[in-house]
Amino acid sequence: MSTGQVVRLKGTDTEKITVNLGFVDLGHIDLLVQEGLYSNRTDFIRTAIRNQVERHADVTKQSVSRKSVELGLRHYSRQDLEAAQAAGEMVHIRVLGLARIADDVTPALARATIASVEVLGALHASPAVRAVLSDRMR
């Protein structure tokens, strides 16, 4: 039984983070942007992160396989969770990327069907659903 569906990410599906950099590092980035190697600071930072992720791709693949983690975007709909409940099954959310729990999933349904939540990346769920699952998040 499928407990979710894989959905393609859109270019606007991003998570904003804050990075504190020293003045010298920031100056180097600005110089590279000024020289035209990167279009802006964000372009440099994204490129640097992608290069590091690619550099460690083998470690990531081994870890994803070992931990049985789903890679990418995983969406859990109300229908998915109701089907799990009807089958007497509990859902273990293990995602590297973005896990989404649909807005129409009630806190009671989430609590009754989601046994654990482990997300490396971001979890999008209503505040009420996040609250009832807080003791199940790692």
How would you describe what is shown here?
With about 140 residues, the protein is of the alpha/beta class. It folds into 2 domains: about 25-55; about 60-135, no CATH class. It is about 45% helix and about 20% strand. Strand 2, helix 4 and strand 3 (about 90-100) form a beta-alpha-beta unit. Helix 4 packs across helix 5 and helix 5 (about 105-115) packs parallel to helix 6. The radius of gyration is 19 Å and the shape is elongated. Pfam families: RHH_8 (PF17723). InterPro entries: Arc_rbn_hlx_hlx (IPR013321), RHH_8 (IPR041088), Ribbon_hlx_hlx (IPR010985). One of its GO terms (biological process) is regulation of DNA-templated transcription.
Any key phrases for this structure?
disordered N terminus, four-stranded mixed sheet, 6 helices, alpha/beta, 138 residues
How many distinct domains? 2
Q: How are helices and strands ordered from N to C?
A: EHHHEHEHEH
Query: How large is the share of residues in beta strands?
Result: 15-25%
Q: What is the CA-CA span between the terminal residues?
A: 24 Å
Rg computed from alpha carbons, rounded to a whole number of angstroms: 19 Å
Low-confidence stretches: 1-9
What's the arrangement of strands in the largest beta sheet? 1-2-3-4
3D shape: elongated
The mean pLDDT is 89
